[in-house]
Amino acid sequence: MNPASLIDVSTLAIVVGGTLLATFLRCGLADCRATLRQLGRTLISGRPFDADAVRAHMARVLQDIHRDGLLRAQPDSVGDAEFDAALDALVAQRSVAGAREALHQQRESRLAPVRAANNTLVQAAELAPVFGLAGTLISLGRLPTSGVDRAAYMPAIAMAVHATLYGLIAAHLVLGPLARLVERHAGREDNQRRALAEWLESEVVQAIPRRDALRHVVAAPHAELEGEEA
Fold this sequence. Notes:
Blueprint: H1 9-45, H2 51-68, H3 81-93, H4 96-141, H5 150-207, H6 211-229
């Protein structure tokens, strides 16, 4: 088989162009931009989330918190906006709940474009075979109405086959795998971040005094004063 025989530019334009246009109309400009950014981050940037580096930076910050306490702690940046926001909330509010809420908000902001990209690619994968069928119908519509002219019959059938083939390839070998790739990439990062968040919370709890301990610290001076007066 000659590979060049599988290339039909006009049919490819119908399938690919129609799929892109329909996906844009369905999902909108914002989701399409998010899709391009996520694909670029997944395929081109080549810089996955470095959980070990962030953990090492946070370990130094936690040492300062253990030593100085939350009241005097001034955490440095750990090189990740999500955990920087969590540490800032932890110091500002002096509570694990504040850090947990900050991480939750950051997580939602991080995953929103991932969900948009995944949905856009899934929509495109569903639309590609539809436009493959559209190309097939267009090719069949080019058949002569008066008798079968071999010169017109063969190109029309070739276009019909190419259109169906392009639609299936686009859906199952390009768009569908890209959707799963974006999802897997984001899922791995999210799992690493969850593990780091759990570790951070367990470490911070040890640096926050319990309510009973605070009561003891506050009550002790009063007891001493009462003893002196007696």
